Structures are given as C-alpha cells and as structure tokens.
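Technical appendix A lists one of the benchmark inputs used to test multi-chain prediction within the project. The record comprises two sequence entries:
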Amino acid sequence: EVVLTQSPATLSLSPGERATLSCRASQSLSGYLAWYQHKPGQGPRLLVFGVSNRATGIPARFSGSGSETDFTLTITSLEPEDFAVYYCHQRFNWPWTFGQGTKVEIK
Amino acid sequence: EVQLVESGGNLVQPGGSLRLSCAASGFTFSSFWMSWVRQAPGRGLEWVAKMNQDGSHITYVDSVEGRFTISRDNAKNSVYLQMNSLRAEDTAVYYCGVAIGDYFSSWGQGTLVTVSS
C-alpha cells in the first residue's frame, strides 16, 4: 500500500498569506497524485489532479507541483473560504489512499 | 449541475447490516465510474470501493472485502453499498463519488453510519 505523509499537520495562517502544503509518497506515483479540500458537512472537493492540473472551477490561487514522491499544494493568497482540511490522494496503486490531511486554520 | 445524495445511514448493532444508497443527477450516470469513501470520527478519508460503468470491474479495500458489496442500477441513476457483518470500526460518514475524468471529481454530502450496541 502506498503511504502518503502530509506536513505539517496544522498550518495557522491569516487571510492573504501564502500556504504551502507538502505530501510525500512511499514510492513513485508516476504523476497519479491529486489534492482535495474537505470542509465539515460537505463532500471532498477536487482541487488538483495529475500533480498540477486544476480541476474545473478551481481558482488560480491553487496550484500543484512536484514529481516522483514529493508534491506540493500552494495557495498563493488565502481567502476566508480556504480554511479547511486538505488531503493528497494517489491513484497509482490500489488501494487508493489519502494522506492524513493538513488542516489550514485561521491564525 | 452534478448532484449526489446519499441516504440509508443509521445506528446499527455490531454484526448487523445496512444498505446505503446514492441518487445521482445532472450527468449521464451510466457513463462513469462510481465509488464510496468514508471518514471515521477524527480520522482521515479512506477509499472503500469503486466500480465501472457496467459493474464488470469492482474493487474493495481489504478491510471490507467479503463484507461490503457495491452495486449500481443505471436505470435508476443510483449506486449502492450493501454492508454486512458491520464492526465498530466501520463507524464513519460514507460519501459516494463520481469520476468525470480520471479522478473522482464530485461527491455527495455523506451519510452517517454508527455501529454500536
């Protein structure tokens, strides 16, 4: 099973600041890496797929990068609605897995 | 607009059964893969099962293999999760999702399953 390790567990930032979230995989994912945003009472929202492709309707302040085993989600300027939990996800191998999540909270 | 609405979550005793349903609208249901993921209290997301358009390709996470069955009715635009031999560790919010593209891009709001005596 591919293990995804996210860091940090919690990120305390103010609106307008830049957020950098990391995800490390236990093996190379050949680009099969996505990021989801998850808020209480809602289903996960796909932000980025294939490492760096923004999903439909996702604002340009969200960007993904990385390769092999190390990946990053960057939110260039946090908006109030961006405070949530973010998960990286791999679909390279079954069982597909998620990281344990990074909570972006208001400082 | 893609909409997925889960139902069927409830309190059930260990060893019991439950059937979750997910009603889909806003897209051509029969053309896309469907899936279930879950989130246990205080935990992260876990993929449970997925199936292709006609049900010929189905996979489960090991922890539910042999106990859970995913199915779909393309005429009713619905996907189901039959859960048998439920355990306390199956307690979670269950979400259904659709893969419009290579990734699961839309999800419902979830239904809560609580396994407890």
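Chain B touches chain A through 22 residues (CB under 8 Å). The mean pLDDT of chain B is 96. Comparable benchmark entries are summarised in Table A2.
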